[in-house]
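Hi R.,

Here's the input for the nicotinamide-adenine-dinucleotide complex you asked about:
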Amino acid sequence: MTLSSNDVPSAFSDLRMLIDGRWTAGSGMAGEPVFNPATEGALGRLPHAGPDDLERAVAAAARSFDAWAATPACERRQVLLQAARLLASRIDAIARILTLEQGKPLAEARAELAAAIEVFEWYAEETRRLYGRVIPARSRAVAQVVQHEPVGPVAAFTPWNFPALTPARKIAGALAAGCTVVLKPSEETPATALELARACVDAGLPAGVLNVVFGVPAQVSEYLVRHAAIRKITFTGSIPVGKHLAQLAAAHGLKRCTLELGGHAPVLVFDDAQIEQAARVCAAGRFRNAGQVCVAPSRFYVQRGVAERFTAELAAAARLLVPGDGLDPAATMGPLANPRRLAAMQRYVEDALAAGGRVETGGRRLDRPGHFFEPTVLGGMPDRAAAMCEETFGPIAPVTVFDTPDEALARANALPYGLAAYAFTESPRTAAAVARGLSAGMVGINHLAVSLAEAPFGGVRESGYGSEGGTEGLDAYLSPKFVTHLSA
Ligand code: NAD
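And here is the predicted structure with nicotinamide-adenine-dinucleotide in place:
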């Protein structure tokens, strides 16, 4: 059966928040509509939390913290595993919800949900390894141990580009460590996060351990981050907002932060690379989720001898994409998630032309309802063009030329971002040099698979600090406590 955007699932007709184990519309704040970016039609109406609702959510997270932290890790594991099983059994329905509110093709929505489920499973297993350690003492009368304790109630903020995977990383990491959570997902993609919460509730998570609220982002974060009961902030989103939250967190209790603030991943393509394959891989990575991916390869530095060939292949791969409603099986690229991104793409192309770049393919908004922008490749780009220096967060691939590896590294590292970086080369020596030299939290060589449940995901410099995923992801929610015991 072909699904249509007109059949809106009931999840959207009854959007609620989750506060202290209850699904609630809150205390009557105005709320806002949720739109389908492929049609611009309204899907439903989202309630907002007022100060009373936020207070109840924090109070619930604070009240339930001691019991959840003291719940044996093997029991927390069971809840997370059961949530993963429930999500897997509901994957078709949730994928459709995700596509409707965010826009990505159904196959991408399913892949994102599969990754989110894997995150739940991985953190569930990692609860078995919440070890402490014994430190040999300086005296026989002393016993010394380090134990890891959950930091406390967490305020988590997630964006609209990965409405399942980003909340999953924060929810599963925090719950595995023994923390409780107040999550504020993006108001633009609320229903997917609510389905994750529903799976946790149905899996037996005690009331109050996970709360989900919506509202005006700046007001909600101001309230939660300042609150004395909140002990940890985790945020994925833009650099200015991340800096603002870090300042608030410092001013109000010096709370720990994990900040994943996006990037502008450079790709160095050397003349010994397998050019056709590199271009295909880069096109798939650049245009996935219509380019709204913080680790997407997004500015291309290509060695002079292969630049023309690489650019032509990249443009050819871009032309093969079929933009369309994510529910249409023929569509291979969805719309941009909101009108802000569409306006930004138009600005980036105009700026590129003014700076001396040229459009190799694409460059325009599609003449149809929805926030559709053509997959775009820009050639001959000067480093000063906005698309080369700013995170474009859309389906634009700017290409420039370099001569020497040192020059490529210097230009790649010249921006304040440091999330992901990539290189394509057949030379082990070049690969080692760029792995060492690229200023980034994640480096992919000859492929782009840097986002894995079992590996640390996070940036350096203005891309933020702290990791999600890997054993480092659990550390984010734990504090070491050193206990030294003199017993003579
Ligand atoms: P934005 O900065 O307004 O919002 C980014 C996210 O932060 C949204 O989810 C929003 O709800 C939330 N937010 C905004 N202000 C907040 C506040 N004061 N407190 C708490 N949360 C707040 O930008 P946008 O227009 O949604 O996206 C623009 C840029 O954000 C993109 O170009 C990209 O650079 C960045 N972004 C990064 C990621 C990522 O995965 N790192 C995801 C989404 C957006």
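One thing worth noting: The CA atoms of residues 407 and 413 lie 10 Å apart.

Cheers,
M.
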